[in-house]
Amino acid sequence: MNLRHVLKETADGFRRAWGSCLLSILTIAFFLSLLGFIALVSANIDHFKQTLNDRLQLQVFISGTLDDQQIAALSQRISRISGVAKVSFVSRELAAEEFQKEFGRELFAALEENPLPSSFVVRLGITGEDEGRIKQIAARIEEEAGVDEVVYHFQTLFTLQRYARLAATTSWILLLFVTLGSLFVVSNNIRLVISARKQIISTMRLVGATPGFIRSPLILEGALQGAAGALLAGLALYFVDRLLAQLLPGLLHLPPESLIVLLLLGCFLGFLGSLLAIKRYL
Predict the structure, then answer these.
(1) What is the H or E stretch that residue 81 is in?
(2) Tens digits of residue pLDDT in 109-161
(3) How are the residues of the chain apportioned to helix, strand and coil, as percentages rounded to the nearest 5?
(4) β-pair type (147-151, 57-62)
(5) Are residues 218 and 79 in the same domain?
(6) Quick one: which of 231, 215, 217 has its CA closest to 267?
(7) How many domains does the chain have?
């Protein structure tokens, strides 16, 4: 097959239907940008969720009337509860030191006495996805004699769990939408090219041109449209990623390999859209 002919016919196809080609490229770029942005949001939600999971713990405040022996016995009972991984004792003095580090010694010095109670920090051996189990463990610990209150701040984690599921579902729906939309616009553009070259294609068939010789420029044109759309989407995502890096330094950022995946996805969608048009109209 003559590579020069394929490239020339591909360029002619772009020139003859440049308006629809540009529309196809911009549409694919928009679809892939949207998909990449949702994927980035989903990755960050998973990252924050994992970070909170690693810090999954309860604060158990205990009665000030307990002596050292009773505190040790209570610690043992809590550690034997299913789902508890580790129990650490925080004395009133240690709690006061942590308070002063965070809020300053001047504020603490204004208090007549140390108002902070002793407590246990209870590390859990389960994930934050099991919201019901966490609440059961907290309720079970609260039943122990000598426990005044059990505090846990997992509402953010529970909220992230819901958003993570929503982001995952949205990503799959959007991927389907991107695929169908890209196939439609590329296929429609190739159909226009075929219609514009109908007479030329008939002449080529009469002189013995093989199907592969006729179809190759059209397939390449579709793949290039997908690649161009993916490049535009990659540039848009890169600038959004750089902007977010300045505004929110703690976020995960796009790895370089994701841009390669985006480019391959664009080429594949363009290639597949061309094949569908060729099978239907040629």
Answers:
(1) none
(2) 555 566 577 889 888 877 655 677 888 888 899 899 899 888 876 666 667 66
(3) 75, 10, 20
(4) antiparallel
(5) no
(6) 231
(7) 2
